[in-house]
């Protein structure tokens, strides 16, 4: 009897081992995990399975699909380097897939790894989307004619694409101005400037940019590795290129654009604008554009006003009824008239500087980190200020309570 039981147990164990070794079983288990959204565990299962059955095409395609889904999640969360790596793993499993080459190229572009992105996009074929991103790489690296060539070819394939039409129109507006510009360089910046500007001004601007790189980088906790394009315009060219409001003193739209016509040397006000616009560079790097305008502009005002503080009346409790709602401050300011724009910037500065003073730069860095992971502002604040048990409404309440009584503030803020 004992021998028969031992034999039965041995048979069961062998059957279980055979079942576990079956690629269909691995695939089914992985599929269950995928259907539950547990891609990380599914990845472990499928990697183990493909190592045992390296020629099973179904397992290979399941593994590639899992890498792709993880990469898409990374893209949504702003983890561009990790997304590119997961797309690479998927593409190695299905090397004939042009779609995977395209997706990896896009992830590399978003991570500002332009050389690798270009190589990957060129492998993905002559589709409209790959041409759009090849154009973006050319544009971001200062090759406007190259960008226009790619975008015009993309437009032939996708003539109804309004976004593409906007890119072409913008580049065509900039090309006549930028084609006659001189060039200058420093360790992290590529400078283009109007040949009519005083020759010493460009060198002073580069020095200010390098100073901003170190100072603002220390406050926000990030030091970009990709080179940053900066353009100095005459005031007339600045208006024609940017179509910005009359009160605009600078712009960051992927490139720092500054109107400096008429200046012969770097003034404290221009230096402050450089620090202001460079702050937008870092905020974009950290949040990928997922940030309310008031917080973005508030941080930029903090950095700029360290160098040049305008003579502005301080906000006080008596002005509370005139304060702009957060909804108005969360969108762009460029469409505002001068008076409303002044209040928008002053209020943004007041709210954001209060947050820095009350909760510290580390908490601000944490808010930016969560925004970069696609959290909304309230969630980002709640997570970053968990030790204070505060959400965004709580922060705004504390800020309002901090405003001085009417007539006691005075001066500039």
TrEMBL record:
Coiled coil regions in record: none
Keywords: Signal, TPR repeat
A family per Pfam: TPR_16
Residue ranges of every copy of the Peptidase MA-like domain listed in the record: 221-403
Residues spanning the signal sequence: 1-20
Domain of life according to the entry: Bacteria
Extent of the TPR repeats: 64-97, 128-161
Cited PROSITE patterns: TPR
Name this protein carries in UniProt: Tetratricopeptide repeat protein
Organism whose genome encodes this protein: Geomonas propionica
Phylogenetic classification of the source organism: Bacteria, Pseudomonadati, Thermodesulfobacteriota, Desulfuromonadia, Geobacterales
């Amino acid at each position: 009897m004992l021998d028969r039981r031992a034999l039965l147990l041995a048979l069961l164990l062998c059957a279980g081992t055979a079942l576990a070794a079956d690629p269909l079983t691995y695939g089914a288990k992985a599929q269950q995990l995928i259907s539950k959204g547990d891609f990380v565990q599914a990845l472990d299962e499928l990697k183990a399975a493909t190592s045992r059955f390296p020629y099973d095409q179904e397992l290979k395609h399941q593994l590639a699909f899992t890498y792709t889904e993880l990469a898409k999640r990374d893209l949504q969360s702003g983890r561009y380097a990790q997304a590119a790596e997961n797309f690479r793993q998927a593409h190695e499993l299905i090397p004939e897939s042009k779609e995977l080459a395209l997706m990896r190229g896009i992830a590399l572009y978003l991570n500002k790894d332009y050389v690798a992105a270009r190589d990957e996009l060129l492998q993905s074929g002559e589709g409209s989307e790959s041409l759009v991103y090849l154009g973006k790489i050319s544009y971001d690296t200062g090759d406007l004619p190259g960008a226009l060539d790619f975008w015009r070819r993309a437009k032939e394939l996708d003539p109804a694409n309004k976004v593409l039409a906007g890119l072409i129109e913008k580049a065509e507006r900039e090309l006549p101005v930028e084609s006659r510009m001189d060039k200058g360089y420093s360790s992290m910046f590529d400078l283009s400037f109007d040949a009519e500007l005083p020759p010493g001004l460009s060198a002073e601007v580069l020095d200010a940019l390098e100073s901003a790189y170190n100072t603002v980088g220390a406050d926000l906790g990030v030091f970009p590795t990709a080179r940053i394009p900066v353009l100095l315009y005459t005031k007339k060219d600045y208006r024609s290129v940017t179509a910005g409001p009359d009160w605009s003193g600078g712009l960051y739209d992927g490139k720092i654009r500054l109107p400096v016509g008429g200046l012969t040397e770097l003034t404290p006000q221009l230096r402050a604008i450089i620090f202001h616009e460079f702050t937008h560079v870092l905020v974009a790097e950290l949040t990928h554009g997922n940030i309310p305008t008031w917080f973005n502009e508030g941080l930029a005002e903090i950095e700029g006003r360290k160098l040049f503080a305008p003579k502005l009346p301080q906000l006080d409790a008596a002005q509370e009824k005139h304060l702009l709602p957060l909804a108005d401050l969360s969108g762009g300011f460029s469409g505002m008239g001068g008076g409303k724009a002044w209040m928008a910037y002053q209020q943004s500065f007041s709210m954001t500087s209060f947050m820095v003073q009350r909760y510290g730069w580390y908490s601000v860095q944490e808010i930016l980190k969560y925004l970069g992971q696609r959290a909304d502002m309230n969630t980002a604040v709640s997570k970053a200020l968990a030790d204070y048990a505060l959400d965004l409404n709580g922060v705004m309440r504390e800020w309002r309570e901090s405003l001085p009584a009417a007539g006691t503030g005075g001066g500039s803020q």
